[in-house]
Amino acid sequence: MLPSDPIILLSFLNTKLRDFYPSLDAFCKAEAADKATLCRAMAEIGYEYSAARNQFV
Description:
Elements: H1 6-19, H2 24-31, H3 35-44, E1 49-50, E2 55-56
Antiparallel strand pairs: 1-2
């Protein structure tokens, strides 16, 4: 289950991406998460996914 608080979700996602997954797509596939929903939630707090950095910035 993903954290519901957007700031905690940001930290959770970036940690998982850094430590376990080579891309957001790989994370979403492994965790059965909806990429569009995650990106929307992060955009609401001013972050977007950077494929080059493999993190939300």
